[in-house]
## 1
Amino acid sequence: MFLQNISKFISNYRFEQATAESVTTAKAAFLDFYGVAYRGMDENAPNIALNTVGEIFSGNFNSNLKSSVIGTTLKTDILSAAFINGVAAHVLELDDGHRGAQLHLGSIIFPTAL
């Protein structure tokens, strides 16, 4: 029931309902995500994820696949890109956080949205 209510709220939410403060907060969170993901690609964990995805697909990242891996020229399928970008965004533990919930939402939300 709770998940259904959240899903309904999200699917019915429109940009016009957002306050200027929430838009500014979302923009700042996205910039934070992108910055730490870009720098995070220099670490071992996202490169291990990238190599694993490459092994699964036998290195065949064909030109029909359109999703970008941040900080690279690689384009891959949407699930692989979201996975790798999420790993890169969280690997440095510098991504945004919610102290009360002890969550790092940006490394989940933004790769999924992209």
## 2
Amino acid sequence: MAGAALILPFLPMLPIQVLLNNLLYDFSQIAIPFDRVDPEDTARPTRWNVKLIERFMLVFGPASSIFDFLTFYALIRLFDAGETLFHTGWFVESLATQVLVVFAIRTRRPLFQSRPHLFLGGLALAIVALGIGLPYMPLARWLGFIALPSTFFLYLAAAVSAYLVVVEGAKQVFYRLYDGRA
């Protein structure tokens, strides 16, 4: 958000959109307590490793920011987005990536080798679908959204898929390098 504010002649997202994005993301995560835990994670007691968490944030935070900047570029250059289209496109992309990344970071296993609880998976997908649908609902105008061009959804699918592949690859390298040690 701060980086976009430096390069755009308008706010990257309206305050109501930021709050709605945060609310929807938070709601999507209420199912985490119901999630399945991989057997190797419960085989022996584990302690929080603050250094590992810090390193994890230093790897995955910039990866997320890179994809945000790619989306900014795509919205401005590929979609010739004005203020409202930019707000709408970034809202949808940021909600999708932040909600769906939970499937990659919830386990040390590769993404498709650890199945989340149905409640977590279903709620996450429902929130992403809601986010995609919001620009087409009656309250869209009140929220500052407009309909997205159909080609945006090709970009969205490619960007979200690429983001999850990058996060998954980074996760595998991260755990090989640090393997739980500080």
